[in-house]
Automatic annotation (TrEMBL), chain A:
It comes from Virgisporangium aliadipatigenens. It is a multi-pass membrane protein. PANTHER family: ABC TRANSPORTER PERMEASE PROTEIN YPHD-RELATED-RELATED, GALACTOFURANOSE TRANSPORTER PERMEASE PROTEIN YTFT. Its main location: membrane. This is Sugar ABC transporter permease. Keywords: Cell membrane, Membrane, Transmembrane, Transmembrane helix. It is found in: Cell membrane.
TrEMBL record, chain B:
InterPro entries: AAA+_ATPase (IPR003593), ABC_carbohydrate_import_ATPase (IPR050107), ABC_transporter-like_ATP-bd (IPR003439), ABC_transporter-like_CS (IPR017871), P-loop_NTPase (IPR027417). One of its GO terms (cellular component) is plasma membrane. Residues 5-240, 259-502 form the ABC transporter domain. One of its GO terms (molecular function) is ATP binding. This is Sugar ABC transporter ATP-binding protein. Gene3D superfamilies: P-loop containing nucleotide triphosphate hydrolases.
Length: 337, 504
């Protein structure tokens, strides 16, 4: 029992359960999942579906943060990825041509990889501080995305493209399947190869890692490229879901939610040990919280405040120092009572 | 003498471990009290209980006869107990005066009165006979001076009990003397000083009284005069000194027995501006080469250039007779070199990773990320070395942070030994670790060289260098001044003379 409580995902899991239960008070059918027209419907499905872009971005962010870095540019990469795909599709003679859509997707992902390589170059090869290095693309990337879309919102009408973010397979949203498979493959790759260990070592103690013969620059670079790819896929899911690309708003401020998801998942911003499962759980908690705000009917003007309070409560519950203090107070109170 | 602090029947347990049990500790005003024991004996725990970092589970602490209980470092400090740790916990970029007064700046109308800050700090350093410009940034002074400034700050904040945890481990001999002068002055002012150190000679020089702990229990308290050094070591390790003596008897390695063929590694005019003057050095298979010299004389710099940790800007390094372009530690490793840094924590271990992960790190780095060691191979290697080096606790999945210094050093050694190096460079492997572990590591070096491994052995302890080396390279002021065959003609005095710059 103690081991369960001390597990680093215990408190986020508790928070998720509390949020879900809380929702059922306001909306008794909240937990109900129904099968309609061969699709699963229900708030739980909505949560998972809406969490897919964030979960992907958080996955990439986790690995970057494990190297003691940070990637602020993920939102912009999302926008660029979506814009590229939509621009390509909108120029197609037949927007429903599967081949054309595949090329669009490939182009978008390739560009995302290139952007990741750019970030990695700035951080690992030039040695710019990650927060500054990725800030460059965070700002410039919005510009690039707007350049691609010509300052307009590009709307596409392509059913193959729509499948990515809004389609269903085996009654499950395709986006959820894509993310589940991608996360699983990434997790296995990271933990079965030595990549995870070497990244944790580089983030945990760069000097010691260098003296142990680890080529830190290589692993840091890989982390940013991976984060770029994750953001690219997230961008495709996001834009496919709405069948349009908005260079200005797609992925706006998602980097902050992603960082939050990583922290909730128990990975320290100082680098080192990381938990992919934790970050995914963190992303789901954040999206559940967003949906709770609607179910509970928090006034729009105070949604951010509500979110902030819940997040603070969660972070405090997770902090061993705070829990120790709280426990001490309580035992002292019991002693005097 | 007045008993200023008494701890009686102190107990502290952590999950699964009893860290301290029934320990008594008495501190009198105006004494330097050495707290000794091997790594893991409970010294650090006792200090943390005393400074309020941990809360006691059993027993009683009295300060000036009044029972006290600390639930935080702030309380202990307010009660008059200050600590200065091995690593200086000050801000290098602030001035000396700011560092001394930080957190308690004299204010006027809510604004800091900088002139008073400087005045107060200046008066303090003058009173303690430190020749320091309080307006200069802290980083412009040596570590030794920084440490004394930390001590000045500590006694200024609260001047009853001063705890010095391994204060001398990064100081050279003359700096130690400066520190001791400061300690004596404070002692004469009535401050009670707790002195934790692994350097027993220093303990005998400065301490008035000794308390020895072993395995979380109290062994006893003695006046220094009543406890000869040999007896003290026995109390600390709790057994006869057989192991230590055996090594002593074994004597130095025979230079004659060593067959020197072509050198394994030959450095020819290798140097780096501002770091070390170009030097020549050859290391043969099965040879232990000792590097002797004062702290800062360039010992570590020699090692770092050979291993490629720093880039040499002159000279060539030949391995097996062929010149090698050292691009970094990776190059050195592919040629069979290994380097255990003197700074275990900052340059050696990744503390949050487990013992297992730390041990396989170098080998895995050499294989690259795509060729992971199988779990079975990991278990095999790790358990083999945990056993061979007697790493305790023998739990490969424990974070290495939770191990004592000696065991951490062994983990670092294990990391390099599993790469099966041909040249092992070890920088101060025995600093800050207990007598038992020290002996084991010395024995290991002797065995490895008997087995054909070349070893470059760096130590500040001449005795150790003399005992282990076939050849001794002496450094002075960042220059390799002499290479001596370690035969009967060479002794400590001879090396000391070279280090000191007398006629070689």
């Amino acid at each position: 029992m103690k081991a369960v409580v001390r597990h680093r995902l215990f408190w986020p899991a508790v928070m998720l359960v509390v949020l879900l239960i809380g929702n059922t008070f306001y909306s008794p059918s909240f937990l109900k999942v129904t099968l309609r027209d061969g699709h699963f419907y229900g708030s739980l499905v909505d949560i998972l579906r809406s969490a897919t872009p964030l979960a992907l971005v958080a996955l990439g962010m986790t690995v970057v943060i494990a190297t003691a870095g940070i990637d602020l540019s993920v939102g912009s990469v999302m926008a660029i990825s979506g814009a590229t795909a939509c621009l390509w599709i909108s120029e197609l003679g037949d927007q429903n041509a599967v081949g054309g859509v595949l090329v669009a997707v490939a182009l978008a992902l390739l560009l995302s990889l290139v952007l990741g390589v750019w970030n990695g170059f700035l951080v690992a090869a030039i040695g710019i501080q990650p927060i500054i290095a990725t800030l460059i693309l965070m700002v410039a990337g919005r510009g690039i995305a707007q350049l691609i879309t010509g300052g307009q919102i590009i709307t596409v009408n392509s059913s193959p493209y729509k499948v990515i973010g809004a389609g269903y397979a085996l009654a499950i949203p395709v986006s959820v399947i894509i993310v589940a498979v991608f996360v699983a493959v990434a997790a296995v790759l990271v933990r079965r190869s030595a990549l995870g260990l070497l990244v944790e070592s580089v983030g945990g103690n760069p000097t010691a890692s260098r003296l142990a013969g680890i080529k830190s620059a290589r692993y840091i670079w890989i982390a940013y490229v991976f984060a770029g790819l994750c953001a690219g896929i997230a961008g495709l899911i996001f834009s496919s879901n709405v069948s349009s690309a908005d260079g200005n708003n797609a992925g706006n401020l998602i980097e902050l939610d992603a960082i939050l998801a990583v922290v909730i998942g128990g990975t320290a911003l100082t680098g080192g040990r990381f938990s992919i499962a934790g970050s995914i759980l963190g992303a789901v908690v954040i999206k559940t919280l967003d949906i709770t705000i609607y179910t509970v009917g928090v006034p729009t003007s105070s949604t951010l405040l509500f979110k902030a309070i819940v997040v603070i409560a969660l972070c405090l519950a997770q902090s061993p120092a705070f829990r120790a203090k709280f426990a001490r107070r309580r035992s002292a109170a019991e002693a005097t009572a | 003498m007045d008993e200023i602090l008494t701890m009686r029947g102190i107990g502290k347990r952590f999950p699964g471990v009893v860290a301290l049990d029934g320990v008594d500790f008495t501190l009198r005003a105006g004494e330097v009290h050495a707290l000794l024991g091997e790594n893991g004996a409970g010294k650090s725990t006792l200090i943390k209980l005393l400074t309020g970092v941990y809360d006691i589970d059993a027993g009683e602490i009295r300060l000036d006869g009044v029972p006290v209980r600390f639930t935080g470092p702030g309380q202990a400090q307010a009660a008059g107990i200050s600590t200065v740790y091995q690593e200086v916990n000050l801000c290098p970029n602030l001035s000396v005066a700011e560092n001394i007064m930080i957190g308690r700046e004299p204010r006027r109308f809510g604004k800091i009165s900088w002139s008073k800050v400087r005045q107060h700090a200046g008066a303090l350093v003058a009173r303690l006979d430190l020749s320091v410009d309080v307006t200069a940034p802290l980083s412009s002074y040596s570590i030794a001076v920084q440490q004394m400034i930390a001590i000045a700050r500590a006694v200024d904040v609260s001047a009853k009990v001063l705890i010095l945890d391994e204060p001398t481990s990064s100081l050279d001999a003359s700096e130690v003397q400066q520190l001791f002068a400061l300690m004596r002055r404070l002692r004469d002012d009535g401050v009670a000083i707790v002195f934790v150190s692994h350097f027993l000679d220093q303990v005998y020089e400065i301490a008035d009284r000794i308390t020895v702990l072993r395995n979380g229990g109290l062994v006893g308290e003695w006046a220094v005069a009543d406890l000869p050094q040999l007896a003290l070591v026995e109390k600390m390790i709790g057994k006869e000194l057989s192991a230590l003596e055996r090594l002593e008897e074994q004597g130095r390695p025979s230079v004659a027995a060593l067959e020197r063929g072509a050198p394994l590694v030959a450095a020819d005019g290798v140097g780096r501006a501002g770091s070390i003057t170009p030097f020549d050095l050859t290391i043969h298979k099965g040879e232990v080469v000792g590097l002797a010299g004062l702290l800062g004389s360039g010992r570590t710099e020699v090692a770092r250039l050979l291993f490629g940790a720093d880039r040499a800007d002159s000279g060539t390094i030949q391995i097996d007779g062929k010149p090698v372009a050292m691009r970094g530690p990776g190059t050195a490793m592919t040629h069979g070199m290994a380097f255990c840094s003197e700074n275990r924590r900052t340059e050696g271990l990744v503390e949050e990773l487990t013992v297992r992960e730390n041990i396989i790190l170098a080998l895995q780095a050499r294989r690259g990320w795509s060729r992971p060691l199988s779990r079975r191979r990991q278990d095999e290697l790790v358990s083999k070395y945990i056993k061979a080096l007697d790493i305790r606790p023998a739990d490969p999945d424990r974070p290495v942070r939770n191990l004592s210094g000696g065991n951490q050093q062994k983990v670092l050694l294990a990391r390099w030994l599993i790469t099966e190096p041909r040249l092992l460079i070890i920088d101060e492997p025995t600093r800050g670790i207990d007598v038992g572990a020290k002996t084991e590591i010395q024995k290991l070096v002797a065995e490895l060289s008997d087995g054909g491994m070349a070893v470059l052995f760096i130590s500040a302890e001449l005795e150790e260098v003399l005992r282990l080396s076939h050849k001794i390279a002496v450094l002075r002021e960042r220059r390799l001044v002499e290479v001596l065959e370690n035969d009967d003609a060479v002794d400590q005095d001879r090396i000391m003379a070279t280090i000191a710059g007398g006629n070689p």
